Amino acid sequence: MPAPSRVQLFATCLVDRFFPHVGHATVRVLERAGVDVHVPDGLTCCGQPAFNGGFTADAAAMARHTIDVLSRSGDPVVVPSGSCADMIVNHYPELFATDPEYAEKARELASRTFELSQFLVDVLGITDTGARTGSQLAYHASCHGLRGLGVIDAPLQLLRSAAGERCAELPDGRTCCGFGGLFAIKMPHISSAMLQSKLDAIQASGAEAVVATDVSCLMHMGGGLRRRTKAVRMLHIAEVLAGPDHD
Amino acid sequence: MTEHPQPAAFHTRVDSALADAALHAALSLTTGRLASGRASAFASLPGADGIRDAARAIRAHTVSRLDHYLTEFTAAAELRGCRVHWAETAADAARTVVGIARASGVSLAVKSKSMLSEEIALNHALDEAGIRVVETDLGEFVVQIAGDRPSHIIAPIVHRSRADVARLFKNTLGAGDDEVASIPAMTAFARKTLRSEFLRAGMGISGVNLAVAESGSLCLVTNEGNGRLTTTLPRVHVALLGLERLVPTAADLGVILQLLARSATGQAMPVYTNVITGPRRKSAGPEPGEPDGPDEVHVVIVDNGRSKLLGSELAEILYCVRCGACLNVCPVYREIGGHAYGGVYPGPVGSVVMPGLEGLERWHDLPNASTLCGACRDVCPVRIDLPHLLLKLRAQEAREGIGPWWLRLGIRVFTAAALRPRLYRVLGNLAGRLSAGLTRNGWFTWMPGHFGRWTESRDFPAPAAKSFTDTWRGARERGKERS
Amino acid sequence: MSSARDRILASIRSGLPHAELPGATEARPVLPPAPAAAAPNDLSALFEAALTALTGTVHHAATPAAVAHAVASIAASCGAGTYLAWDEAEIGCPGLFEALTARGLRRVTYDLPFDAGGRDAGVRALEDVGLGITGADAGLADGGALVLASGPGRGRLASLLPPVHVAILSASKLIPSLPALLAARPDLVGRGSNFVAIAGPSRTADIEMTLTHGVHGPKHVHVILTA
Question: Using CA atoms, how far apart are residues B273 and B221, in angstroms rounded to an integer?
Answer without folding.
Answer: 5
